[in-house]
Amino acid sequence: MTACLDRRNCLDEAITxxxxxxxxxxxxxxxxxxxxxxxxxxxxxxxxxxxxxRFTGRSIGAYRGLVPSEHSxxx
Length: 75
Known about the structure:
Layout: H1 2-20, H2 25-31, H3 39-49, H4 57-63
Helix pairs in contact: 2-3
């Protein structure tokens, strides 16, 4: 168990270093201002979303699957 925790901590440190010096650093910095969003979450979102201006507030939630919706036929 200790080895797993050490590995996780090592990976967290590596991700933190990458997030501090990458093209996503400005986005990560802004996302970390949100309550509950740490470096790992912010970096993951920044990398996955990529081109933030293509989204509005509502469409980003739908893209991430955070907005409930129904997809059914009229039959």
